[in-house]
Structures are given as structure tokens and as C-alpha cells.
Amino acid sequence: MTPAETRRIGLRLENIDKRYGGLYALRRVSLEIEPGECVAFAGRNGSGKTTLLRIAAQLVRPSAGKLTFSPAPNQSERATKNTGFVAHATMVYDELTAEENLLLFARLLEIPEPSQRVESLLRDVGLFERRDSLVRTFSRGMRQRVALARALLHEPSVLLLDEPATGLDPQGVSWLAATLRRLRDADCTILMSLHGESEISDVATRAIRLDAGAVVADTRNGASLHSILTFANA
Ligand code: ADP
Q1: Would you say residue 76 has pLDDT above 70?
Q2: Rounded to two decimals, what is the model's pTM?
Q3: How far is the CA of 51 from the centre of ligand 1 (A)?
Q4: CA-CA to 200 of 20 to 30 Å: which in 135, 189, 191, 192?
């Protein structure tokens, strides 16, 4: 699953606000994320983690401020082509099988030899034996595995994960941690929201805490990973 030809991509968020009516989901967020960093975002419910990931995935526009990728995508290439996003609610079709879901997205993403790529990912996520089952019949953890496989289809340079361990059994968590470690070591830039410390947070190279939409701690400014990840849980 190591990207054959990883394009190292960094992100810069400059003074980003996201308002919903009078509510600031994000307030003046400025961050420089280097290519190959694996950043864990911590913070209480409602602190803005999902909003930040959705902005980075370009699913939501900021109300103010600017998001840029470096290097900037070529004119012919959409920036979203380089990103993979696993949302909190898994974005997979219930009435399709695991294999049909992945083939559909592989074709949308114009992946060469989609059948082979899909087969290899189904094996990776441990769902090859269940490839012909409708996703509707899957457990939360199995659906999460399909969603993760979907996000990895095009070997993204930037991977965005909203509470990726949700619903996974211990085996699934270990698989996810090993996968993220491999991607990180291949210079994939990873942004993920997490609650507390786990095998997944062990992969992080940086942690950032949000509170009421603002960045209040960052290991870059001297805070420890442990204090950022556990404070959010308190
Ligand atoms: P977290 O992921 O840290 O739990 P979110 O980013 O989901 O936080 O939410 C941050 C704040 O923005 C919350 O107060 C939430 O209610 C609000 N919010 C998020 N999305 C919307 C939306 N589509 N409409 C209105 N308010 C929203």
C-alpha cells in the first residue's frame, strides 16, 4: 500500500474562520503543516476538529482566511485528487457490496487497473472474503474498513481522518496503526482527529489541541504530545 510515487504535499492555513450564523466553529486558525507530518488534533466535542478536516478536504469553504497546498496543484489537477478523507459518518453506499463500492470510486478516480487495486485493498483491510456482501449488512468496524480502503484507493499524498478508530476492534486498530505508520514513513501527510492516547496516536509526529475553534496548544510550541492528547480527554 506504500504509494508508488508519493508527491510530498504540505498545507498552510492562514487565519481561517468558519462561522455558522453567529457561531465560530473555527477562529483565526493559522497552521503550517509540513509534508510527511502526522498531526493528531485533540479537543472536546464541538471544538472544531471535524470542521478543520472538512476545510482541509475542501468539502467546506472557510468564511475567512486561506488554505493553500504546497506545492500548489498543477492547473490540470484538482487538489482534491491528492487527498483522501475518511469522515465520521462513513461515506459508503449501503446497497452496494464492498467490492462494488470500491470499484465505483476507483472508476470515478480514474485509477488504472481498478479491479486489481480493489482486490489488493480488500485483502489489506481484511474484507476480501466478504467482498460480495452488501455494506448494509456490515458492522460499524467493517464499514470503517471499507471507508478507509476507499480513501486509500488513489494513494493520496494527504490523508484526512476523522476519529478513524471509531468502531474498529483491537485487530482493526492495530491494522490501522500499521497502515498509517507505513503511509507516514512514505511521506504521506496525515491529519486526524483523535480522543486520547492509543496505538493510533503513537503514529503522530505532532499534536494540536483546539478549544472553541482556536488552536490552544501545539507540540511545535513546546507542549508534549502526551499532555495535548490527554488534556482533551479530561
Ligand atoms: P468537533 O469535530 O471538534 O466535535 P465540529 O467541527 O464538528 O467539532 O463542530 C464545531 C462547532 O461547529 C460545533 O459547535 C458545531 O455545532 C458547529 N457546526 C459544525 N458544523 C455545523 C453546521 N453544518 N451547521 C451549524 N453548526 C455547525
Answers
A1: no
A2: 0.91
A3: 6
A4: 135
